[in-house]
C-alpha cells in the first residue's frame, strides 16, 4: 500500500510523526511524504523532522508565505503532479491548514482515496480559515479519523452518515506524540522561574485584529507583573507585534522552539495560555490548566470538564481567568478517556482493512 502524506505546517509534522512511526512497523506500507513548504523557517519545520525522526520528505514544494488563494492554488497544482507520478492508494492529510485542503482537493479530483486525520472538529466560526479548510476536507474524505466523540457527533449532525465515507473514532494522534516524547523533553536555554506561565499566540483571528492583539498583550503585561510568562513567538505574531510596537518588556520572548523543548515547557509550567489548538490538548495531557485566548474552541470537552477556560481576547476576562486559576486546584479527569489511546495504531489498522 502506498500512502502519500501531505504536510506543510508545524502541527502537522507533530501529528504525522506519530503515524509515521506506526507505518514504519509495517513492511507492506510505503509512505511518501510531500512537504508543501507552508512553514519553512528551520525552527518551524526542519527541527521537527530531525528531532522526531520523521522520514525525510521526498517532495518539497517550497510554497509558503503567500496569500491563502495563491498558496492553496499553487499547492493543488504541485501536489497533483506528485500524485500523478506516485499513484498512491491513499492521500493522507492532517488537521485544518491550507496544505490539508490542497491535498484533499487533489485526492478527490484524481479519485484517490483520502484519509483525514483530525476530522469532525468544528469551531462554528466560518471566519476562521481553519474552519473552511476542515469542512471542505471532511466532505471529500473517504475515511474520517475523529479524535473525540464530539467530532463524531459533529459529522453526524451534518449528515455525514448519509455520505459514502467511513467515520472512525481513532482518538487523538497528538496524545501518542506527547506520551512518546515526554521522557525526551529538553529544557530550553533561558532563565526560567519555577511557576512560569507558557503562552503561545499565532491564530489569524488574534494576530490580524489589532484590537484583539493589543488587548491580549495588555493582559499578558499585567499578569507578568506576578509571574514569568514565556512566549515562544510564531513568526507572523513576531512581525505584527513589532509593527504595532506592542509592549513586551516584561515577557520572556523566545523564537519558536522545537517539540522537545515545547514538551519540557508544557510539562514544567504552572499554567498554559494559548490560542493554539494543539497546545490546548497538550496542556491537558500534562495536567496543566489552560486559558484559551479565543472565543470558541474545537476541544469543547476540555471546557466542559473544567480544565480549559475560554477567555477570548478581552483583557479583563483574561486577567480574571488567571486569578481564578490561582484560586482553584483543578482535578484532572483522565479516567474520562477524552482522547482515546494508540490512535496512530488504530488509524493504520483501519487503512489496512479498508474495503
Ligand atoms: C498556519 C495554519 C494554522 C495553524 C498554523 C500552525 C492555515 C490557514 N493556517 O497558520 O491553522 O494553526 O499554521 O502554526 O493554514 N511564517 C514565517 N516562517 C514560517 C512560517 C510562517 O515567517 O516558517 C510567516 C510568514 O510571514 C507567513 C505567516 O507567517 O506569511 C503566516 O504563515 P501561514 O502558513 O500562512 O499561516 P500560519 O499563521 O502559520
Ligand atoms: N509547538 C512547538 N513549538 C512552538 C510552539 C508550538 O513545538 O514554539 C508545537 C505545540 O507543542 C503543538 C504544535 O506545535 O504540538 C501546535 O502547533 P501550532 O500551535 O502552531 O498550531 P495549531 O495546533 O494551533 O494548529
From TrEMBL:
<dbReference type="GO" id="GO:0008761">
    <property type="term" value="F:UDP-N-acetylglucosamine 2-epimerase activity"/>
</dbReference>
<feature type="domain" description="UDP-N-acetylglucosamine 2-epimerase">
    <location>
        <begin position="21"/>
        <end position="352"/>
    </location>
</feature>
<comment type="similarity">
    <text>Belongs to the UDP-N-acetylglucosamine 2-epimerase family.</text>
</comment>
<protein>
    <submittedName>
        <fullName>UDP-N-acetylglucosamine 2-epimerase</fullName>
        <ecNumber>5.1.3.14</ecNumber>
    </submittedName>
</protein>
<keyword id="KW-0413">Isomerase</keyword>
<dbReference type="InterPro" id="IPR029767">
    <property type="entry name" value="WecB-like"/>
</dbReference>
<dbReference type="Pfam" id="PF02350">
    <property type="entry name" value="Epimerase_2"/>
</dbReference>
<dbReference type="InterPro" id="IPR003331">
    <property type="entry name" value="UDP_GlcNAc_Epimerase_2_dom"/>
</dbReference>
